[in-house]
Amino acid sequence: MKTSRTALIVAALLALVGAGWYLSAAKPPPPPTEAKAVPVITAQASQRPIPIRVEAVGNVQALAVVPVRPRAEGEVLQVHISEGQEVAQGDTLFTLDARTAEANKRQAEANLARDRAQLDRARADLVRYQDLLKVGSATRQKVEQTQAEAIQAEAAVRADQAAIDNARLTMGYSTIKALVPGRTGTINAKLGSLAKPGDSQAMVTITQMRPINVAFSVAESHLPRIRAAMAAAPLEAVVTSTADPDLRAVGYLSFIDSAIDTTTGTIGLKANFANDDTRLWPGQFVNVTLTLGTETQALTIPAEAVQSGQNGTFVFTVDDQSKADIQAVRVDRVVDGIAVITQGLTPGAKVVVQGQMRVAPGLTVSERAPQAVKP
């Protein structure tokens, strides 16, 4: 009795399992789910006037940095300047002891007086012996000897005059003046110290602050445009600084180097600035912008749309079916967040501005309304 009941239970279980398998086999599989569209923000490539600018990092350089050294030896009797002082050309910086030069000058003047007296006597003797030679009372040898003595006396007088001039020059060296206008640095010549022409350390260094130069380099590809702009009119250069947000100095390009640096492919340039307010300081790093003109029909896209890869720059484009693709582009320049494209796009093309990290070629994207490029 128990055996037959157990058999009935097993048979019922087998029937239920078979029915479930049948139903599952007969039920059709669910349809495949479509890939979800990737949300992105796009913009359209458009043509507009864009200034042709060249930007670089420059270094402020003084027109002249003059180390002041003595030209004659002497003790420093007076220091007329202080460190960091603005001096004009011709201002007195130091006064040295000139007593030795003054003594040499007095000695040369005494020698001059003596030799002039000897010259006068030699000339008088020469005239007398020439007259005696005419009447036969003197020999020609005596006349020639007297003539040589007069010439020697003339040479002695000229040497004495040169010694006087040299002493006066040395006395002038005792007053040291500024050869250029500028700002003084550390004063190394202290009151009472001995200044010598052979000293390795300058007494003080004067750095010319006005006007001032900014040196920078740009890619050699910009050289033709820069030369053409300079030929048409003075090329304006604008300097700004991240360290000094209020700085905006305007100058003019004054120098183009004579050769391109083959190791870096750049050309050296310099711009000159009046620097009346001394906002530009020698050694300072600044941002330099040259405006070479305006391109009236430049093809532009937002700069954030441009990506960099192993094969160069590219953008993600979106077609009419909302499919993404990769397009290689060539960027000429970036101006105020706008990239100027010279190859790879046509006006009206849609490019992905935000969301590139989730985009791949062939994926469907869900784009927002295309944004116009900000002017």
Automatic annotation (TrEMBL):
Domain Multidrug resistance protein MdtA-like barrel-sandwich hybrid intervals: 65-207
Domain Multidrug resistance protein MdtA-like C-terminal permuted SH3: 297-355
Domain Multidrug resistance protein MdtA-like alpha-helical hairpin: start-end pairs: 106-174
Keywords: Cell inner membrane, Cell membrane, Coiled coil, Membrane, Transport
SUPFAM superfamilies hit by this protein: HlyD-like secretion proteins (SSF111369)
Main location: membrane
Domain Multidrug resistance protein MdtA-like beta-barrel: 211-293
InterPro entries: MdtA-like_b-barrel, MdtA-like_BSH, MdtA-like_C, MdtA-like_HH, RND_pump_MFP
Compartments it resides in: Cell membrane
Chain segments annotated as coiled-coil in the UniProt record: 98-132
PANTHER family: BLL3903 PROTEIN, MULTIDRUG RESISTANCE PROTEIN MDTA
Family the entry assigns: Belongs to the membrane fusion protein (MFP) (TC 8.A.1) family.
Protein name: Efflux RND transporter periplasmic adaptor subunit
